[in-house]
Amino acid sequence: MGACSPPISHLLPNPNKTLITVNKKKPLFIIVSSSSKPQLTIQRRQLLLLSLPISITTIQLSCCSGSAVAASIFDPVTDAERAASSEVSRRVAEAVELLEKGREFQAQGDYVQALKYFTQVVREYKDFALSEYARVGRALALYEVGDKNEAIAEMEDVSISLKGSPEVHAALAAALYSDKHAPVLAENQCTIATLLDPKYTDLGYVKDTKHWPPSLVQSLQDFITLS
């Protein structure tokens, strides 16, 4: 048996040789990439990113300079409109000054001078809303100087244009009761006045704070006491 056994030394692996096995089901793919291409791409991206802020800043500066030029050229207000606005401001300042002078004379008890200034505001600046407040002062001054019928007519007119002004309604209530002998109408006006401001039933308030003339204060007292 030993003589018939074939030698098997040629079947044993040779330690000096490398055994290579090939997987036929799963072939081996070897991908060779060039190292120069990624580096070139990265460099291009870096250059692009570095150039962006400069481009954006340039655009912003261009836009700002363009806006500044446009703003300096375009002016929506014409010279005529600017002159008209200046004229209105001047007239308003004059009307306010006259109104304040009338109130100063009213506070001093000089109702003749107060009537003069209030009347000037009403006649020369009737296109301004503040002339309605001058009409209130004018009505109070007219009542004190003795022209009570015109004073009441002025109060009635202003009570409509300045509806919601407690002073006008309170003064009209006092005048209607004392001079027109109309207690019902006076009560209606007093109700409106006291709902808006209850202080107008205080004689000290209308005398010392609102500077009503003595004759109108007396008329209000007569109405409150029903005398």
TrEMBL record:
This is Uncharacterized protein. InterPro entries: TPR-like_helical_dom_sf (IPR011990). SUPFAM superfamilies: TPR-like. It comes from the Eukaryota. It comes from Lactuca virosa. PANTHER family: EXPRESSED PROTEIN. It holds the Pfam family TPR_19.
